[in-house]
């Protein structure tokens, strides 16, 4: 039976996995169908604890996430969703299959849902698609959503920042910690995990991170813990899960969670508006008589570029706002 959008939007609320899978494909594709689905389900979203797991290629993020899922499922009746945002850089290309195989241990658990996200033509790229994918999981009743990204590009960092709790994963002996400290990526970590604790130098790496955190201590009242794990044999995982929950408790106190989500929404709105404007601009340039006339006038020096841009912006935005949303 073919699933209709209307059907998906109803069945997803009952936790139906097939509808959830379809909904995720729809939001990955973007466009009007995705917008329709999000509009329909937005009221059921915003409920999960979002955990971002990021770090350089191969540090063991997927292994850690796999161990975390097991720990979360073992210690409580929480539904866990995972979005593995496909690394785009070529040298990590092999990870996609690896992730699937690694996380297969949970395929029989009906309260675990794992999905690899690809950039399938959503014009706003994976970041915007990922935000909507989180909403689909939330509508389907997932309490915890883990987003794994490779912390290299701008968009991956944007995704990592969108989480309520961001876990930065490093490994000993890679010079990763030094790089992270230098590049300022440390700031996004609410929690640090030195994985591959069985390799030499783990303690030293952890100490270096702690020292740099001391130096950059902020006023927020949260002291980012640094955990050493050996994810392959589940060592140190319960501490990580405990610290993630501590962070969530900390955020909930004094309305910090709300404040953080507000910043996030501002950023997403800006990104979305820019995305819509960009695609409308493209279609205006291609199809609008008025815009083409403007270009002619520009070429003939009858109008200057600044005035022309103002006029085009009017055209772009007048097209996107439906009447019921227009600010009078
Ligand atoms: N020695 C050791 N190896 C580990 C540990 N955790 C993971 N590994 C190995 O490290 C390699 C990479 O692990 P992944 O979990 O795929 O790493 P990842 O960070 O998800 O990799 P990308 O998604 O490609 O960025 C695999 O060969 C794992 O078996 C650990 O605690 N100790
Ligand atoms: Mg991985």
Strand and helix map with partners:
Blueprint: H1 5-11, H2 17-29, H3 31-41, E1 49-55, H4 61-75, E2 80-85, H5 95-102, E3 112-117, H6 125-139, E4 144-150, H7 154-161, E5 165-170, H8 176-183, E6 191-194, H9 202-215, E7 226-228, H10 237-252, H11 256-287, H12 289-299, H13 305-320
Helix pairs in contact: 1-2, 2-3, 2-6, 4-10, 6-7, 10-11, 11-13
The chain binds guanosine-5'-triphosphate and magnesium ion.
Would you kindly provide a written description of the structure presented here, covering whatever features stand out?
Helix 2 (17-29) packs antiparallel against helix 6 and helix 4 packs across helix 10. This protein folds into 2 domains: 46-255, Rossmann fold (3-Layer(aba) Sandwich); 264-325, no CATH class. It has 328 residues and is α/β, with parallel strands linked by helices. Strands 3-2-4-1-5-6-7 form a 7-stranded parallel sheet, sandwiched between helices. The chain is globular. Strand 2 (80-85), helix 5 and strand 3 (112-117) form a beta-alpha-beta unit. It is built from 13 helices and 7 strands. The protein has helices at 5-11, 17-29, 31-41, 61-75, 95-102, 125-139, 154-161, 176-183, 202-215, 237-252, 256-287, 289-299, 305-320; strands at residues 49-55, 80-85, 112-117, 144-150, 165-170, 191-194, 226-228. Residues 61-62, 95, 99, 148 line the site of magnesium ion.
């Amino acid at each position: 039976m073919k699933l209709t959008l209307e059907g998906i939007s109803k069945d997803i609320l009952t936790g139906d996995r097939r509808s959830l899978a379809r909904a995720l494909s729809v939001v990955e594709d973007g466009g009007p169908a995705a917008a329709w689905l999000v509009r329909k389900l937005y009221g059921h979203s915003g409920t999960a604890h979002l955990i971002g797991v990021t770090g350089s290629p191969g540090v063991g993020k997927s292994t850690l996430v796999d161990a975390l899922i097991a720990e979360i499922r073992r210690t409580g009746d929480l539904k866990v969703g995972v979005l593995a945002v496909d690394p785009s850089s070529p040298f990590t290309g092999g990870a996609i299959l690896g992730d699937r195989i690694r996380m297969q241990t949970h395929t029989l658990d009906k309260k675990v849902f794992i999905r690899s996200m690809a950039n399938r033509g959503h014009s706003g790229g994976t970041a915007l698609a990922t935000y909507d994918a989180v909403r689909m999981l939330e509508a389907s009743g997932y309490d915890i959503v883990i987003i794994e990204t490779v912390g290299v590009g701008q968009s991956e960092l944007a995704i990592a920042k969108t989480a309520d709790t961001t876990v930065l994963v490093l490994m000993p002996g890679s010079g990763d910690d030094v790089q992270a400290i230098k590049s300022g990526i440390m700031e996004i970590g609410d929690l640090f995990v030195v994985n591959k604790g069985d390799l030499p130098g783990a303690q030293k790496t952890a100490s270096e991170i702690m020292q740099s955190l001391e130096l950059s201590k902020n006023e927020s009242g949260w002291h980012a813990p640094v955990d050493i794990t050996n994810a392959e044999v589940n060592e140190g995982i319960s501490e990580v899960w405990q610290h993630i929950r501590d962070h969530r408790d900390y955020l909930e106190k004094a309305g910090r969670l709300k404040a953080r989500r507000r910043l996030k929404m501002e950023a997403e709105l800006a990104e979305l508006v820019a995305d819509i404007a960009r695609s409308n601009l493209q279609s205006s340039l291609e199809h609008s008589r008025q815009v083409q006339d403007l270009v002619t006038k520009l070429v003939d020096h009858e109008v200057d570029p600044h005035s022309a841009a103002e006029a085009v912006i009017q055209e772009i935005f007048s097209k996107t706002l439906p009447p019921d949303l227009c600010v009078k």
